[in-house]
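Follow-up to my post from last week.
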Amino acid sequence: MPNSSDTFKTGEIVLFDGDYECLLCRQMDKTTVRTLQKGRIFPSCEACGTKDGTYRLTGRPARK
Ligand SMILES: [Zn+2]
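User reply:
Got it. Predicted complex:
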């Protein structure tokens, strides 16, 4: 799994409002994007069923 400042794990706190893509789904040629607000906790991904997901910020942060 990539480990840059653009990726976040399930259980971490969301730092920016934005759209986050599940990288596990991406590996399976699916696109699962969740919109999360600052202060929330990154959830597990229902689409791929992982409890230890990795998300990548897509689009622009601080979008309302
Ligand atoms: Zn997923």
